[in-house]
Amino acid sequence: MKLLLDTHIWIWYLLGNLNLSNNLQKAISDERNELWLSPISIWEPFLLAEKGRLILKPTPEQWVQNSLEQLDTKEAPLSNEIAILSPQLALVHQDPADRFIAATAVHYKLTLVTVDGNLTKATCLSTLS
């Protein structure tokens, strides 16, 4: 399976967060699955750290770099097509980051790994939660 990790899933997995179900932990650690990340998911931890909602040590920059080395993922590049697709998706809310991540999953035909109810309810994309 080709899995696009939503930002919170990527962070939870790497931090060993108990909110991540055993099912999702197994899917992420299964070497038969390809793991993908959007650049949006690389950007969001910096925003969370800046707002004081997440502490990443030793620095956010180093945490992200270490995380990219620790978990083998492929980059799902943003493109003009994704930018055009993002406002067209039938999503419950208008969060720009979620729209870009959802559009990335649709564009690259990836299953989005998320527990965000706003995304799991969307019929326009495949999700795993």
Query: How is the biggest beta sheet arranged?
Result: 5 strands, parallel
Calculate Rg over CA atoms: 14 Å
Count of alpha/pi helices: 7
Name the shape in a single word: globular
| Spatial sequence of strands, sheet with the most strands | 3-2-1-4-5
Mean pLDDT: 96
Q: Termini distance?
A: 14 Å
**Strand content range:** 5-15%
Helix content: 40-55%
| Sequence of secondary-structure elements | EHHEHHEHHEHE
Strand count: 5
Name the poorly predicted regions: none
> Structural class of the helix and strand makeup?
alpha/beta
Fold blueprint:
Blueprint (H helix, E strand, L loop, with lengths): L1 E4 L1 H9 L6 H8 L4 E4 L1 H12 L9 H11 L3 E2 L4 H6 L10 H13 L2 E3 L3 H4 L6 E2 L1
Short synopsis of the structure:
This protein is about 50% helix and about 10% strand. By secondary structure, the protein is an alpha/beta fold.
Notes on the structure:
Helix 7 links the parallel strand 4 and strand 5 (127-128). The chain has seven helices and five strands. A five-stranded parallel beta sheet has the order 3-2-1-4-5. The radius of gyration is 14 Å and the shape is globular. With 129 residues, it is an alpha/beta fold.
